[in-house]
TrEMBL record:
The gene is glmU. Residues 260-498 are annotated as: N-acetyltransferase. Its main location: cytoplasm. Residues 464-476 have a biased composition (Basic and acidic residues). Residues 477-498 have a biased composition (Low complexity). This is Bifunctional protein GlmU. It holds the Pfam family NTP_transf_3. Mg(2+) binds at D112, N236.
């Protein structure tokens, strides 16, 4: 039975501003793979079964809280505010009230470590439990340990303390084993130890690392658990953010390919956390899948396509450079190239939406086609209907949106303008170039264009008129020219001018 004495809790430190990001936005709000930075350590703690997970916030606290709640609905999250950033020990102490009556182990993570794996976190938690130690900390060995606290061991290689670089001697700075900023502590030891932490150091801050020296003197001592440096490293600037994003995407790509997804060029594939892709899907280069997108088995996503919160069924072909958002595409449909499906678009089974076609809140029935240069907004298109090139549903009157309804097996000629609200019945035909404002009954032919008028010889007559006008203008220019002196060139024009 899990009790407050045995249950794992977590504290994620996410209060800092992150000045090296050079941003008005808090560091932990910067996104990679569609999630804020702080989401990743929070998610790893949740995957390990931590309950609750307390996030210590400070800079832009409300925005950080809102972002995490929105991206982790229903998760056992709590929030604590660190009003002043007085050090890591002070930050952890800020979370005490939010943990309530929890007395079990507490794992402590940094909010800027998106590459941490669940199994690495598990190793630290289990190492403390196995050793029955008051504290376990993650350790990594670096060739260039600048900026990190060094782990000082005794002659028996037991961790004795962590010394921050600004407080370290030259000998201590030569140590390559450093603190990775990940801990698991016994709850009772944690709160008693934090009450004793002082700020007598170079930065006048309350260091969480002071707990290592306290644990070393207690029963069980301190346990240092080696972890991969690539996982524990924090993100401090935009270059590191981009590198971390690439690592996450590579991990995701590898997992997908092992599960049967063909990714033609993983280096040019971007996929958010939470996207689901079934086996036998083919992803061409330059594809980006975002949000809650799901791709069904046997579908192909063409080069350069961007799909956001889109559900793609089995056997769908999305041709290159298609952009979709909050849309659904049913089995066997073909979309693209250069199509845009805006929110509320529902493309039915075996329907076709072609090049430079835009849909918004439009529902196309089974086998319906709109293959060229068309806008379908606030529309319902029946099964088997063909919508010709250049067709527009005029859904907005300047104040309200109105719906166009087209029945099954209808034929809409090219360059038609359908002024909503309007209904076109089953099997009806609309002549090319028509502008329609009235309903069209089932099986009817509607023509909404001016009668053609042909004027034979019009081109020649027009050219003759132009030639006559030009000749007149040239004659006027000659008549207004100045006469030569001496009278020999003087004529009527010069006399009129005089």
């Amino acid at each position: 039975m899990t009790t407050s004495r045995t249950r794992l809790a977590a504290i994620v430190l996410a209060a800092g501003k992150g000045t090296r990001m050079k941003s008005q936005k808090a560091k932990v709000l910067h996104e990679i793979a569609g999630r804020p930075l702080a989401w990743f350590p929070v998610m790893r703690a949740l995957e390990l079964g931590a309950n609750p997970v307390v996030v210590v916030v400070g800079h832009q606290a409300e925005a950080v809280e809102a972002a995490l709640v929105a991206s982790l609905p229903g998760a056992p999250l709590r929030f604590a505010v660190q009003e002043e950033q007085l050090g890591t020990a002070h930050a952890v102490l800020s979370a005490r009230d939010a943990l309530g009556d929890h007395e079990g182990p507490v794992v402590i993570l940094s909010g800027d470590t998106p590459l941490l794996a669940t199994e690495t976190l598990r190793a630290v938690v289990e190492a403390r439990a196995k050793a029955k130690a008051p504290l376990a900390l993650a350790a990594m060995t670096l060739d260039e340990p600048r900026g990190y606290g060094r782990i000082v061991r005794d002659r028996k290689r037991r961790p004795q303390r962590v010394v921050e670089e600004k407080d370290a001697s030259a000998k201590e700075r030569a140590i390559r084993e450093v603190n990775a900023g990940l801990y698991c502590a016994d709850g009772g030891f944690l709160w008693k130890g934090l009450a004793k932490v002082g700020a007598k150091n170079a930065q006048r801050e309350f260091y969480l690392t002071d707990l290592v020296a306290m644990a070393a003197k207690a029963k069980g001592g301190a346990v240092a658990v080696p972890v991969p440096a690539a996982e524990a490293a924090g993100v401090n600037d935009r270059a590191e953010l981009a590198r971390a994003a690439r690592v996450l995407k590579d991990r995701h790509s590898d997992a997908l390919m092992k599960a049967g997804v063909s990714i033609e060029d993983p280096a040019r594939f971007d996929c958010d956390e939470g996207v689901e892709i079934a086996a036998d899907v083919v992803i061409e280069p330059g594809v980006r899948l975002r949000g809650r997108t799901r791709i069904g088995a046997g579908s192909t996503i063409g080069a350069g396509s961007v799909l956001v919160n889109t559900v793609v069924a089995e056997g769908v072909t999305v041709k290159p450079y298609t952009v979709t958002e909050d849309a659904t595409i049913a089995r066997g449909a073909i979309v693209g190239p250069f199509s845009r499906l805006r929110p509320g678009s529902e493309i039915g089974e075996e329907a076709h939406v072609g090049n430079f076609v835009e849909t918004k809140k439009a529902r196309l029935g089974k086998g319906a086609k709109a293959n060229h240069l068309t806008y379908l907004g606030d529309a319902v298109i029946g099964a088997g209907t063909n919508v010709g090139a250049g067709t527009i549903t005029c859904n907005y009157d300047g104040e309200k949106k109105h719906e166009t309804r087209i029945g099954e097996r209808a034929f809409i000629g090219s360059d038609s303008i359908l002024v909503a609200p309007i209904t076109i019945g089953d099997g009806a035909y609309v002549a090319a170039g028509s502008t329609l404002t009235d309903p069209v009954p089932a099986g009817a032919l509607a023509l909404g264009r001016a009668r053609q008028s042909t004027k034979e010889g019009w081109v020649a007559a027009r050219q003759a008129a132009k030639d006559a006008e030009k000749a007149k203008e040239q004659g006027q220019e000659r008549g207004s020219a100045p006469a030569a002196e001496g009278g020999a060139g003087a004529g009527p024009s010069s006399r009129q001018a005089g």
